[in-house]
Fold:
Amino acid sequence: MTSTLLTVPSRHHDVVAERVGRSASSAQGALMATPRFDAWLAQRHAANEFRVDRVPFAALDGWSFASGTDNLVHHTGRFFSVEGLDVTVSADTHGVPGDVAPSWQQPIIRQPEIGILGILVKDFDGVLHCLMQAKMEPGNPNLLQLSPTVQATRSNYTKVHRGADVPYLEHFVRPDRGRVIADVLQSEHGSWFFRKSNRNMIVEATGDVPLRDDFCWLTLGQIGELLRRDNIVNMDSRTVLSCLPLPDDYGRARLTDTELLSWITGERSHYSVHARLKPLMTLDGWRRGEECVEHEDGRYFKVVGVSVSAGNREVKSWTQPLIEPVGQGIAAWVTRSFAGVPHVLVRARVEGGFLDTIELGPTVQCTVGNYAHLPSENRPAFLDQVLRADPARIRYEAVHSEEGGRFLHAESRYLVIEADEEQAPTEAPQGFAWVTPGQLRSLVRHGHYVNVQARTLLACLNTAAAALS
Amino acid sequence: MTSTLLTVPSRHHDVVAERVGRSASSAQGALMATPRFDAWLAQRHAANEFRVDRVPFAALDGWSFASGTDNLVHHTGRFFSVEGLDVTVSADTHGVPGDVAPSWQQPIIRQPEIGILGILVKDFDGVLHCLMQAKMEPGNPNLLQLSPTVQATRSNYTKVHRGADVPYLEHFVRPDRGRVIADVLQSEHGSWFFRKSNRNMIVEATGDVPLRDDFCWLTLGQIGELLRRDNIVNMDSRTVLSCLPLPDDYGRARLTDTELLSWITGERSHYSVHARLKPLMTLDGWRRGEECVEHEDGRYFKVVGVSVSAGNREVKSWTQPLIEPVGQGIAAWVTRSFAGVPHVLVRARVEGGFLDTIELGPTVQCTVGNYAHLPSENRPAFLDQVLRADPARIRYEAVHSEEGGRFLHAESRYLVIEADEEQAPTEAPQGFAWVTPGQLRSLVRHGHYVNVQARTLLACLNTAAAALS
Structure:
């Protein structure tokens, strides 16, 4: 925020978007060639010892089920808790979709604090590079993934766990930090978190930045190449990358921006969602054992415990609860081009943990197994088109895992699938809208519009991991 | 939302903003000359009989204090309720401002439904006119004020009170409504409402619109002229008018849009606000009598009951609770021009009923009497500059009342005051930022950024009632 009386700058810095675009099309890095990346990651793995074991709840240190509620809490009252949620959804004009239950109860993570997810960027040889970290998270299927420069809960930076300082944090919290490229509170998973947001930041460093162990500089194009592979780029990186500004090469869209905002307002007004916390012990349909809290039909997810030891984390060993989904998820965008302008089909989604009723999600977002017991009218729209898509129409496909600090092996298959009029009509069905990537980039400048799964898909577009045609 | 496969329009309809600007500078209406307005309003008053009397709670029909909570509720469970709220505010980096209590309890209105506030506009003689309604609300000091075309709670249009249809509602809810100019969920008063939003809509009619009794067509410039007078244009009109698109003649600002959004994100992250509903009977410092619920020191506001009879309302007579503030409020923007670009000083405000921690409010917003018992360091910043402002620096001043359907004689003095470096420094103090009207107009396209008092001031700029220099 450097501005003086005499210089009142333009409100818009379009040059930043152009520089981001140049980095996204740079497949070569100035500091680490992509072919060297695997060896570097393996070396970081070898340099640190990681071990994650499942443990019964009784073996969790400092965690217990509170008397009177059975909520799973830490004795300090910090970090997070697992509580119960009761959700009722009703709708006015066009009813609740067939695949949304009118009411349900579930465990949910409560963590009423805002963390920082920050990527530091810097120009090398005229191209922006991102400072990425090889970071272990206990829930990652392969433990070590590429995380943002900084991934800090408020507990982290206020030192609740008495660990080491968070490297590079000063670039995000100090008033003299560099130039801010993006800074927005984005929602986490609305099905697993109660109204949780994190601060997604991209900051350009102004001076020299010393390179520490476990960190490397990569162009957006290099990160895009890694995003084409499974389980390399972690969720925190993906959500931050979704907030990148990029030029809108088209400037056109089926709905004007005003019409799109009106559609979102209509969807948000349409639903009435009452979500209230309640004691975990009072949840219908869920039971607690010694090793997990689970749904009595084995669906949705479990709450489990793990013990972790790690060499490069702020503290060397700890135990914690994690959410373990039952089955792999799917998150897919159906895409079409109208008059030469690529669009994706977004869906207005109700999730129990959202702060504000609905957010825009992928065309299809679900865990297929959770619908196996239901009649076909309760299956999500477009699911079958996505599952049976002609491989020639698949523009992007990779498996990514959700935040490994809270979720155990929470993998989803992310897809972008090209459709035609028969598969996805020009007139979007109720609850869906065709929007352009440029419009999504305008929306993610603000919170509570685009959900975390859709932000992963947007990150794939932003880094050229996926291309629409 | 009319678009076909072959026409993918530009995302932006700048021509609408220009037409809005033309209407704002049109002091003459094509259908009703401004000098005729007073006679018309007096005639509407005469044509309908209105009477509002204070009544004790026992005389409220259908309303009672629920057993076990003392919450004031309607026997149907609809309309709204008056409950209790417990608020705790903490802050990280730069502390809680001196004029914000770290914790408090208060009664609050709970109305978890989204109403529609809609203004229908139409071109006459090449100038946009707004269809405004002379509407009685029991809490208005002068009962009859100018309201939007439609002002409908969900209870209204789902016919809870078995009254008449809401005229012109079809222009806002039908899929074949006209062209949408603005459509956004905006917060109501965060000090009096618990997380209440209304849908603010401006729609351009495409066909003929029959003119009904109690309605008139006015240009924005005419409405601006009425906004210079006290208590003519009601709060619902003002919030809708704040959402008007207008061209940004400058395109420049002290903070770029990215810096402004980053500042808002920082303020939002900085605060931790825990607000939870609790039974009205358990509130510390509040007592219930037969005629009101009030604070034991006589500050803030009272909950009272009224009986109403009206000729042109959907139902002819009713009783209801209202919130009656103690003392007149003040809501003032301090303005300065930097390098020829006018700016206003906004404040990041915490209010207990906000959905998302902070919204941008006026430079000063308070009821002076509520601070009389406190030491000077607990008085709001800039309050004394505003109270003692040289009349030559006052760019706008009028008294307006807040929503007369919920608030009894809730008047505030709205002011725009020009300042210099000594009164309001170029480097805005912590918690404040200099922003341009153009930036505020970009923010009000989205919800939860600009609070209802600041939106009244913005409506005054949009309609040329106030001009910055």
Observations:
- Confidence is low (pLDDT under 50) at residues 1-5 of chain B.
- Chain B has ten helices and 24 strands.
- Chain B touches chain A through 61 residues (CB under 8 Å).
